[in-house]
Every structure is written in structure tokens, then in C-alpha cells.
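Posting here for the record, re: serine.
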Amino acid sequence: MNKTTSEIRQDFLKFFQNKGHIILPGSSLVPEDDSTLLFTNAGMNQFKEIFLGQKKINHSRVVTVQNCLRTGGKHNDLENVGYTSKHHTFFEMLGNFSFNDYFKEEAIQYAWELLTSKKWFNIPEDKLWVSVYKNDYESYKIWKNIIQIPPERIIRIGDKNNCKYNSDNFWQMGDTGPCGPSTEIFYNYSDKLIKNSLEFFKNEGNCFLEIWNIVFIEFNRISKTKIVHLPNKCIDTGMGLERISAVLQNVNSNYDIDIFQELIKNISMLTSIKDLNHVSLRIIADHIRSCAYIISDNIIPSNENRGYVLRRIIRRALRHGHKLGIKEKFFYKLVSTLIKVMGENSDILKKKKEKIKKILKMEEIQFSYTLDKGLKILDDEIKKANSNTLSGETLFYLYDTFGFPIDLTSDVCREKNIKIDYISYKLLKEKQKRESSRKNKFYKNYNNSIIVNDKCLFEGYNKHKTKSVVRYIFIKNQLVKKIMKNETGIIFLDKTTFYGESGGQIGDIGELYNKNSRFIVENTKRYGKSIGHIGKLIIGEIKVHDCISSQINQNYRHSIQINHSATHLLHAALRETFGDDVFQKGSLVSDTHLRFDFSCFKTIKTSHIQKIEHIINMKIRDNILIKAQMLNLEEAKKKKAMCLFENKYSSKVRTVFIKDFSIELCGGTHTKRTGDIGLFKIFSQSSVSSGIKRIEAKTGQKAIAYLHEKDNNIQDISFLLNCNSACIKDKITKLINKTKQLENKIIDFQNKENAKNIKKLVKNANEIKGIKFISHIFHNYEHKLLRTIVNQLKKELKNIVIILVNIIDNHFTIVIGVSKNLINHITAKNIINIIMKKIKGNGGGKEEIAEGGGINTKKLPIILNSMQSWINVKLKNKDDFLIY
Ligand code: SER
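Prediction output follows.
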């Protein structure tokens, strides 16, 4: 009986546990604290700092199963997925690690024992081949003398292009970081007898599967040209679980192992495809794994960074679903099967199942609007293409207009043997990026292109006023020496108490003054590293180098500060209410209110809003001291501070604490105690885009004013309803019911009126070539009723043209109906166009019904009359149109 993938995973851990290794969990797919990596791509990532000697070694022997993603950066397998039998976007890497403990000999012996011993994987020795780095004589000797592999099955691999360490047997984590020579173990899955290294190279692609990479980490790559020795020698090994399962389950492709077969069967049931080796089935099966795990690590589809990788993979899967003819939304439905097949590794998926399904479904709904259309255009362009290359313009158009990631388009092209002009596409994309960032800059500094990089010291955290020296003055974007009375401009100081708009917090207002002059500051913004005071000089003049006092408006600042502290409370309360998936996506902190955008896939109910308000107002009543501290980024992270902008912080960060309820990195200004906020009230809740919600709230006196306004409204309503506020609901319910009764009565009455009118109209109708022509002008009737009459007459009489007009004051409206059997000769649209032309009104419609209106009522009787002869001319031969 073959081992299942689950059993193989467990055996690996058990084997190394028996050898004194401690089992540690794999790390998240999103690497912590490592800006060099987009996603975790190897088991060693989480131990990078230990390899580098920057972190203490707690356990010298470790074994893990690591979820890995190879879809970008140095290790990228996305394009190969589905087309080869051994590449995946997502895979599980089995790895044993030694940190300054055993080295080459034991690492190789352990690997050999696990693979070949009867008790464990029991692979026949003659099926295994190994490679070593050309200069690594030590490993060569271990394989040859200790393991006793025949030397012809030990392949020595050198450097490519004469470039030192550029070799398949020298493993590097990325462009920088830990690295070292490696030895790889290959499995010959064919029946072919391979005799020596020459034959090995010739047959590598068809006969061999690389199953295990053992890396001897002893170097650190600092740059392209510089490599240094590490303090300790370490072992990092990696074996793809899917590959070793394929070997042990006796199948030639990873897609034939138990996990994938169940997934693939599940997908094929949604289609009419019987061939389980279909590339699209494989791609979808691969992609549901990566997408589900990425989402479980709190990434959502977006147009940037990790979110864009996720979006690209989802969309590529959806396109393959489309290709298989799947009509309904399907991708999210695979999550349940995935959870079933992933065994011990599915805990995180189970926990986030509903969220994963929801996000996948939303992305599918969103993309389905453009997928069909984009594919049609792509198809046309491929047919039109003169050469066998699709132009960069088309690639960019599909990306920009239809949201087609480049891998999706190139996938389609690959199937049709068409190349893509990737370079031109990239140039167009970069151009667009440049242009939009230029636009953004312009927008931010809307009245200038000023950048001042002299640092301006901000003293406004604890002071309202300071003494400053004027450094620069700008008037209409021009650097000047002085500013005179009544001129507006921007003044830069050596230090200030004014906060320059940033991080969502708006700038300050206040005054710059000395004994002779006064400059009213209307706003403050950041220009480069400095803060510009924007405003108008109302007394005297100010020159560069003058000494002045800068004083902010304290009330205004106070309002901003309480809103800023309330924003931190809100962020924490949202996470308490909706879980750790809530992340800030944007904010505005002004003197009047606060606005907070955040990721959240749940529907926000009134009960949630009340809970959030309750949590925050409790914290306000607790009157907690708000403290700010400068910490090392590391320390701040240890304290679990919320870091909103990955990689954007310097090493020392200002951390704002509201006890341990809220800890955030923040440069903004805050109030001293939560009690200063007074009151927190949400006044609006909305959705900004899929998965992003917005809350707007007021605090302090503004919140009270808001509640007063609501009270006043209720008072007014009570007054109008002539009842006290407790009875409003009852009274309104009664009114609604009464209105309904009255409306029904009116409808009854109108129906009777209509019936009478219809009778009259039919009686007075003219006959033209066997059809009835009805035209009538009502006065002070209801336009809606004209439509009802026209529709009713059209239903009752087959051969009919009706023109009904209603005049109220000096305006008229008109409805025209033509029965269906006449529309090949005359249409309502024709008639309305003729009438409106004559009368200079507006109107339009379709063949059987048209409407319009205007002010020229006097000519109406004559025009309606004239239509009779027009109809007469249009209807030539009775037999062409009459229905009996
Ligand atoms: N880091 C090596 C690899 O990823 C061994 O784990 O192949």
C-alpha cells in the first residue's frame, strides 16, 4: 500500500524528531520583517537571522513543513505551472535544519537513511543520483566513501558563464542573504538505464526528478559582487512534499498524487472534461491552493504587491475555468475539497474558510464583467496580428481596460503559439505609473512644485507656541526675500508648532507674528522635509531671517487631536469587533470629524456600530493616559504595535500607546487622556470598494452638536405630527397606512374615470383605412394616466394609433401609442419626432410607445389634426397591416 501525502509529511517529521530535531511550525506565507522577499519561498526564510548570526539559537536541530510560494522574485514557477509535471505556485517544503550543530556528513547520512531504509521510504538505492558543487570535494567524498554511491552517479556541477557561485549547486535565497554550496538528490523515474554523467545530462528532463536539496549554508551574499563567510556553519534542506509523494506513490507527475487527484476530480465534475490530465484542470488545482493559503495570510486581491500576485493567480485560474466551459462562479467552491485534502496542514484554512470563499467569490464576480469581453478582443487581435507576436499596446490595453494580468494574456498566446512583446508592454506600464505619480504629486502640492529639504523641527507635540526664524518665503511659487501686507504666500521656518498635513491628519491654522507684523496661517503642509505655512500677511512685512513667534489655534488643534486619538481607539475597537483581518486602508483626521477606511469582509450591522461606540466610549470614560515613546522598530514590533506602512519606517519610530488597548506607530498629535475626547459618535457607515469599509465619526463638542441636531429634528417632527417623541413611530405607521388607503381610493377613482374616458375616446375615434385614430387633449389630467390609457387601448384594440396630450398651465406632455401590427409603416417614434419638430419640444421613445413634452401648447390642436393626413399617406395598402 502506498503512503498517503499526509503520512509522508508525518514520517518526515517523525524521522527527524527521532534524530533529536524539534518540530517547529512553518512560518506565514508573508515573510515577517523581510523586505527582500514578497512571499516565503523556502523553509529557511524564517531562520534567516539565525543563519546570519543576528538572532540567538534556541534549538540547534529543527524540522519543519513550510508552505512556500514561488511566483515572483528569484524563484518563480508560475509560468511552468500545469505545463510540467513538477512545478507549482504553492507547495509544501519538508526541511531539516542544523544551526551550528551537524554539518555535511550527518546531513547527507540522514537524507540517505530516510530515503532508502526499509523502515522509512524504502527507495531502491540504484534509482537515486546525486549532484555536488564542483569544488565541494568534501561532499563528493562523503557520497563516495561513506554512503558508497558509485562515482558515476555523483554529478559535479560547476559555475555558469564562468561566474563564481553562479551554479545550480550553489543555493542563494535571493539577491542578498544566506547562501552556500548544495548537494541534490535525484530520482530516476524512468526504466531507462543511465550509465554516467553524460547520459544523466542528456536525460535529465525526461528521466529525473530532483527531490531533495541539501544546502551547506556558510556564506552571506552582501551584494552582486561580495560574499562573506558566516560565523556559523549551518544546514538547510528542502524536499518538495508533492515530489516525494509522487515518487512514493509510484506516479510520474505531481498532479497524479492523492491530493491533486481529488482536487482535479472535483473540478472536472463542474465541466464535461473527462481527461483528468487536462492542463487547465491542473492549473486550477494548483492555483486554488496558492490563492486559499495567500488569503489565509490576510492578503486580499488588489493592484499592488502581494495583493496583485494573488489577483494574477486567481484571474489566471478563472480564465482556465472559462476555457473549460464552466459557466457558474466556481473557484470558491473548491475550498471545501482543498481543506479535506490538505490534512494536518489545513487548520488555517478551516479557520478562515468563510473569508477565503467570500474573497474568491467577490473577485470572480468582479472579473466576470470583463473576462468575456477581454477574451473576445484578445482573440480578434490574435487573428489580426500580422506577425506571430502580440503587440505591447494590445497587452497593455487588455491589462488597463479589462484587468487582464500579463500572465493570463501570455497563457492564451502560448496556447496559440503566439509570442508577446513583453518589453513594450512593460515600458507602457512604467510610463503610466510615472504619469500617475506625477499627477498625484501635482494634486498634493496643488498650488506649487516647491520642495524644501531643510528639516523643520516640529515642536508642536507639547507646545502651542515657539520662537522661530524665517528660512524661506515663496509667493506664487517663486522664492522671494520678503512678503508684504495683503500678499499670500508660503513661509518656511527653522522650527514650528504647526503640524504639516500628513498621515491623514490635516494641517493647523494660527498666526506667525512679531511686534510689527502678523501673518494668518490658513493651512500647513509638508513640502519635502519641511513644513510650509500657507496664508496671508495682514500687518507689516516679514523678511527671510526675521525672528517671529509661531502660534497655532489651540481650539482647532484640540479638535484635531481628539479626533486623532479617537481614530486609534476606533482602529482597536474594529479589530476587537471584527478580528485581526481589519487593517487601516486610509484615514482623515480633521477638526470637524474623522474618517476611517479599513479592510473588512463582514456586513456591518447597527449592532456592530453600537458595540464599537460602546467600546470606545468606555475607553473614553476610563480616562486613560495617552503616551508616545520613541522606540526601535524592533522593540515597537515586539510590543505588537500596528505598523500601517510596510517598510516605510526609519529605525526609530514614534509609538503611541493607549495602555495596551491600542499601540500604533504614529507621527500625529494626540490628546493627553482619552477622557478629553468626551464623546464618540459614528454618523456614517459605508462601503468604499469590495472589502473596504468606511466609518465616519464625530467627537467631543461636535458629537454633542450632532446629537442636538438629531434631537432638534425629532422635536420638529413631533411638532409636525402633533405628538410627543415617544409616539412618533406609532403616528408615522398610522400615517403610512392611511396614505396607502387613500392611494387605493384614488386608484379606484381614477380607474373609473379612465374607463369613462376610454369609452368616450373610442366613440369619438376617427377611422383611417380601417384603423382607429384617437387624438385628444386633456387639461389638468395626470401624465401617468395618459400612459395607462394608451397601454389599455393598445391591449384592447389591434389597429390603432393614439395621441394623448395633457396640458397643465402652459406646459404639455404627450404620449403616443401605435399597435404592433402597424410598426412597419408608422411608429410612435416617427410621430413624436414629427410633432416635436413642429412644436420645438423634447421627446423620444420606441416603435410602439413614445413620450414627450414642451411649452408651445397653442399649436397643438392643428398639429394633432395634421397627423391624420400623414397617417393616411403612410398607410398605403390595407392588406399590408390590418389584423381582423
Ligand atoms: N533552501 C533550499 C531550497 O529552497 C533548501 O531548503 O531549495
